[in-house]
Design brief:
Elements lengths: L1 H4 L7 H13 L3 H13 L7 H12 L4 H13 L7 H13 L3 H13 L7 H12 L4 H13 L7 H13 L3 H13 L7 H14 L6 H8 L3 H17 L3
Helix pairs in contact: 2-3, 3-4, 4-5, 5-6, 6-7, 7-8, 8-9, 9-10, 10-11, 11-12, 12-13, 12-14
């Protein structure tokens, strides 16, 4: 819509919502989805989760993948509809089968927790992998945890390290912390206290609530020169990966 993007006309969210409404009422699926988004965030219309869920459903039933995902979120969080994990799983599954990476990760979480679907770590691992291979950091972390613990996949610290590394490089703090543990203990990777300290440092900087004891214990086993090297690696990584 021109009013939504401000293409050739001044951007006007209220006008955009009006015309999306006209098109949505006539059954245009993309307009239904976009109108749902506008109701969901309160852009151009008063925020109304019930209306958002209504329009997501209209679009989702016509096969709009993002609408299927958003409707899954609505059911998972109880936004505009009664919370229903089974319905969340159903809509996530439809979107996940069409390749939506966030839906794949969310569906994996439901299988891992047994919410809305039977508990099944193998299915959790399957869907985490689909999302992880599309670059979803949380899915990479979740898959690494399953490999580290041997749930749904054979226990394999080396594969856990691979997936923790991919998530850590994307800035996932829990993955950075767990990767530090693997380097500190030499599990799945060669023991490397400099790398352990680096990842612990990055994790606690991002998430101050994380325990600093691992960082302190690593430092006790390192020379001052090694600590300095680790700090420099962390600083360089942060500089290269700052928003």
């Amino acid at each position: 819509m021109l009013y939504d993007r401000g293409s050739g006309v001044g951007q006007d969210n209220a006008e955009a919502a009006k015309w999306y409404g006209v098109a949505a009422d006539r059954g245009f699926a993309d307009a239904q989805f976009k109108l749902g988004v506008m109701y969901g965030v309160g852009r151009g219309v008063a925020q109304d989760y019930e209306q958002a869920a209504y329009w997501y459903r209209q679009a989702a039933e016509q096969g709009v993948v993002k609408a299927q995902f958003n409707l899954g979120v609505s059911y998972g969080r109880g936004l505009g509809v009664a919370r229903n994990d089974g319905e969340a799983a159903r809509w996530y599954h439809l979107a996940a089968e069409r390749g939506d990476s966030t839906a794949q990760n969310n569906l994996g979480v439901l299988y891992e927790l047994g919410r809305g679907v039977p508990h099944d770590d193998s299915q959790a691992a399957y869907w985490y992998r689909q999302a992880a291979e599309q670059g979803i950091a949380n899915a990479q972390y979740n898959l690494a945890v399953l490999y580290e613990q041997g749930r749904g996949v054979p226990k394999d610290p080396a594969k856990a390290a691979v997936w923790y590394t991919r998530a850590a490089e994307l800035g996932q703090a829990d993955a950075q912390f767990n990767l530090g543990v693997l380097y500190g203990n030499g599990r799945g990777v060669p023991q490397d206290l400099v790398r352990a300290y680096m990842w612990f440092s990055l994790a606690v900087t991002q998430s101050p609530e994380m325990p600093r004891v691992n960082l302190e214990l690593a430092a006790q086993r390192m020379s001052l020169e090694d600590i300095s090297r680790a700090q420099k690696l962390a600083q360089d990584w942060a500089a290269q990966n700052s928003p």
